[in-house]
Design a protein that fits this description.
- This protein has two domains: 3-115, no CATH class; 163-195 and 242-485, Porin (Beta Barrel), CATH 2.40.160.
- The protein has helices at residues 3-21, 33-36, 63-73, 92-111, 117-129, 131-154, and strands at 45-46, 77-78, 160-175, 177-178, 183-184, 188-199, 206-215, 237-246, 251-258, 297-305, 309-317, 335-343, 350-359, 373-383, 387-398, 401-413, 421-428, 440-449, 454-464, 474-485.
- The strands form three sheets. The chain has a 16-stranded antiparallel barrel with strand order 3-6-7-8-9-10-11-12-13-14-15-16-17-18-19-20. Strands 1-2 form a two-stranded antiparallel sheet. It has a two-stranded antiparallel sheet with strand order 4-5.
- It is an alpha+beta fold.
- The radius of gyration is 32 Å and the shape is elongated.
- The longest helix has 24 residues, at 131-154.
- It is built from six helices and 20 strands.
- The two termini are 54 Å apart.
């Protein structure tokens, strides 16, 4: 190996460092690999003094480094507008161009013996001093490359991510609710586990297949728990199956084979206690008025009007009609439609929405099946920066009667602990089968995030089911929910 090559290798670490410090010494102005082929290279101007760069000041932390590169080695170029753009990110193309420019200068200087021998000696001394550390680092890089190659060869999918959530509830009745048909008199456990397979084929779409199993529930006279659904783990089901894709900049379309109805079609339910609260009554439940058709196929359209307005439409046809070619989707016995206009600006204290919901199933009101239902609702949230006041009202008409339900609540974000959510809400729930009047429920909850994977939510819940006939229809519960995300 020639003496010149050894010298070039000796100064290579320095030239690499010099190239990194010059963020704008590129031969092109590409911002990404995708743009590289579409943009023509910019003819840069060679400069002889750092003062020729209008956006470089003596107070800049890298001023001396740039001055050395320009005035000593002459391997820095400026943009045609006499700028350096030192705060802009460095692309691979720019790094290659800058490194090549400095290596060319170094090669000439070495061939002409124009580099101070003391500098080369210092570089060699540093290389010898850190030889062991460099060898360790090289070994780690080799091991990392081997592990990366193994992961790529054995990865589950290049397009799909697996996400999971497990919810565990412990519910203790302080005041026992007990009638002939509804008894909640002892401590109970309810759990639910979900696995979401989320795939994307364009980077902006999503295909979701969700596997779910659940066992147990509580607060049944009030709609149950928000994160529980009864059943047994012997019957794991496909709970969600849908494909969502954008329609330009207007919004997105969702095609569902199973799992979407009611509030699943809307951009937001507006109410901040929908999610952190433990009881399903926080929903709010008018989205399920007349029964749920979530086990059917559906179509959703979400339209965005700027950054504040969203208009959502959703249609769900419940099985078996949607699965039976003799009946068809639009003649299914159970169908629901929803339309909601939401005002949800990012920088405003006011969030609001109005919704219309039609349901043909209609098994959820007093007296059993009541024919089709029509629900009209308004939702409001006033967020005063960490403190909110929110609520909703919903009017439902059905064959033989009508119903009005509502909830209202207040709460605090980051209450005592960063990331926590504290709230109290209550209200009159929709009528259910066997009820002469609307059930009433109040809940106080405190959601505590231990980290980004574990959240614990204690809650106190009072309810009056207002059963007809004899028995105690009031109850008081203490609940503790633990949520694990992975």
């Amino acid at each position: 190996m020639s003496k010149l090559l050894w010298k070039a290798l000796a100064v290579a670490p320095v030239t690499a460092g010099l190239a990194f410090s010059g963020a704008a010494m590129a031969a092109t102005t590409v911002d990404s690999l995708e743009q590289a082929s579409a943009k023509a290279p910019v003819q840069l101007a060679q400069i002889t003094s750092v003062s020729q760069l209008s956006d470089v000041q003596p107070s800049d932390w890298a001023f001396q480094a740039l001055r050395n590169l320009v005035e000593t080695y002459g391997c820095i170029q400026g943009y045609p507008d006499s700028t350096f753009k030192g705060s802009r990110s460095l692309t691979r193309y720019e790094f290659a161009a800058g490194l090549n420019a400095c290596l060319d200068v170094m090669a000439v200087l070495i061939s002409q013996s124009a580099i101070n021998p003391d500098d080369i000696a210092a570089i060699r001394r540093l290389q010898d001093e850190y030889q062991a550390e460099l060898a360790i680092l090289r070994g780690r890089v080799d091991a990392l490359e081997a592990e990366t190659a193994t992961l790529r060869a054995q990865q589950f999918s290049t397009t799909t991510k697996l996400r999971g959530q497990a919810d565990m509830h412990l519910v203790l009745p302080f005041d026992k609710l007990e009638t002939a048909t509804n008894q909640e008199t002892s401590v109970s456990v309810a759990t639910r586990a979900r696995l979401n397979f989320d795939a994307s084929f364009t980077g902006r779409d999503r295909l979701r297949i969700r596997l779910q199993g659940a066992e147990g529930n509580a607060l049944r006279p009030f709609g149950g728990l928000a994160y529980a659904s009864g059943g047994t783990y012997s019957a794991v089901t496909i709970d969600d199956f849908f494909y969502r894709f954008p329609i330009g900049k207007l919004g997105e379309i969702t095609l569902a084979a199973r799992g979407l109805s009611g509030s699943d079609w809307v951009s937001s339910t507006i109410l901040p206690y929908d999610g952190p609260a433990v009881a399903d009554a926080s929903g709010p439940q008018f989205y399920d008025a007349g029964g749920s058709t979530s086990n059917g196929a559906g179509l959703g359209v979400a339209l965005d009007f700027g950054e504040s307005l969203a208009l959502d439409f959703g249609y769900t046809a419940g099985y078996p009609g949607a699965a039976n070619p003799a009946v068809g989707v639009f003649a299914a016995s159970n169908q629901s439609y929803i339309a909601q206009l939401s005002f949800i600006p990012k920088d405003s204290f006011l969030n609001a929405g109005i919704a219309y919901l039609h349901n043909d199933q209609s098994i959820g009101f007093q007296g059993g099946r009541a024919g089709a239902t029509n629900t009209y609702a308004g939702l409001l949230n006033l967020d005063f920066g960490g403190f909110f006041v929110a609520g909703h009202g919903a009017y439902t008409d059905f064959n033989g009667g009508n119903d009005f339900s509502w909830t209202a609540g207040v709460g605090f974000d980051d209450f005592l602990l960063e990331g926590s959510k504290f709230g109290v809400y209550g209200g009159q729930l929709p009528q259910l089968i066997g009820k002469a009047n609307n059930p009433f429920l109040v809940e106080g909850y405190y959601q505590i995030p231990f980290n980004k994977f574990i959240t614990v939510t204690p809650a106190i819940i009072y309810g009056d089911a207002k059963f007809t006939g004899t028995g105690d229809s009031t109850g008081l519960w203490g609940a503790l929910r633990a949520t694990f995300r992975f």
